[in-house]
Amino acid sequence: QLQLVESGGGLVQAGGSLRLSCAASGGSFSSYPMGWFRQAPGKERQFVAGLTSGGASTYYTDSVKGRFTISRDNAKNFVHLQMNSLKPEDTAVYYCAADRRPYGSVRSSTAAFGSWGQGTQVTVSS
Question: pLDDT, tens digit, for every residue of 93-102?
Answer without folding.
Answer: 999 999 999 9
